[in-house]
Every structure is written in structure tokens, then in C-alpha cells.
Amino acid sequence: MEYRVFVYEGDTSKDDLSRRLAQDAVKAYCDAAGIAFDEAVNVRKETEKGKPYMEGLDVDFSVSHSGLLWVCMVGTAPCGIDIQVSREISERRYNKIMQRYFTPNEQAFCDRYGLEGFFRIWTHREALGKFTGEGVYSEMPDFVGDDGFLKIEAEMPGTGRKVYVKDEPIGPGIFLAYCTEGEDDHVVFTQ
Q: Residues near 177 by Cβ (< 8 Å), separated by ≥ 6?
């Protein structure tokens, strides 16, 4: 399976711009894949839990933004993406998030790698939450193995379904992870 990730650098804090960029990304993907896209018919909607989709279109997409970076992953199968620009957070907030949401293995990973470890796990959780449409606060697998290393393959709790969450190096202090169903899925980044 091939996915495309569209990257935009600039202020996307206005919802209208982010929605327009997402529509343009989906349309560009459809054009390249030979999939008919009609702006009048393929209107952006959201599920009850907020996962966006284009009505009447068998294309999945996921959007994330942090700082001045915006990304949109598009494919014909489920996908999820998250980007985080590292920022300082108080030790109290950092510990509160870790203790509430992270597994003991993930907490040990953060103890070892600090904020980098924290953001790597957080982007993995966000990417999976966007993949499922259930969000980051839903039940999550442990993203760190007993060996202390970040895992690529994750098993969805209660289902046995396997997904793959991978890091993509972007730059210093920028963390990006994406989630797909296939271990060998091909992801192409474009601007």
C-alpha cells in the first residue's frame, strides 16, 4: 500500500486553512491515483469522535499540526499521523501525563531518554488514536517492549489486530509517527 504525506510550513491555526489544505491533499492524492474526486460530492465530514473523512470517497486521511508544521497522510486504507515540535513542559505536567497514560515500560523509556522519549511515545499514541478514530485517550498497547526498545508492531488491545507505528526523522526537536496496517507500506513525503 502506498500513502502520501503532504507537508506544509506556515501558520495553520485557522481551521479553515487546515481544512482547505486537507481537501487539497486528498484531491492531489486522488488525482495521482486516478480516483475521481468531486468537491461538490466528496465533502469533509467527521465521525462522532471527530475522525475526519470525505463523504462518498474510499480514501482515508489523517491531519496533524504542531508549531508551524502541518501534515496530512492520505491512502486507500486506514492511517494515522502525528507531529510534535518539542517544547519545554513542566516536570509536574510531564510526570502527570506519563503516570496517567503511559505503561511502566513506556515510563522507563522516558526516564532513559527524557523529553525525546516522551515525544516519541506521545506521537505513537496520537498516530494510533487517529488511525482507529478512538483518540489518544483510548486503550493503547504498550509501545515499548520488555527489552526497553520502542516497538514498531503493536497489537490492538482486545482484538489481536496488528498495526505498525513508525517514526520518521524530520529534524532536531521534531517528532513524527504514522500508523498503517502493513509492515511494508510505502510512505512518500511531499510538499
A: 81, 82, 120, 123, 124, 126, 127, 165, 166, 167, 168
Rounded Cα distance, 97 and 71, in Å: 24
* Contacts with 29 (C-beta within 8 Å, 6 or more apart), sequence order: 4, 35, 59, 61, 74, 75
Model confidence, pTM: 0.94
CA distance 85 to 108: 22
Provide the grid cell at 8. Answer: 506544509
Tell me the C-alpha distance between 26 and 61, whole Å.
Answer: 7
Predicted confidence at residue 158, as pLDDT, reads: 81
Residue 189 has pLDDT above 90, yes or no: yes
Dihedral, CA of residue 55, residue 51, residue 165 and residue 92, to nearest 10: 160
Which amino acid would we find at residue 110?
C
How large is the average pLDDT for residues 62-84? 96
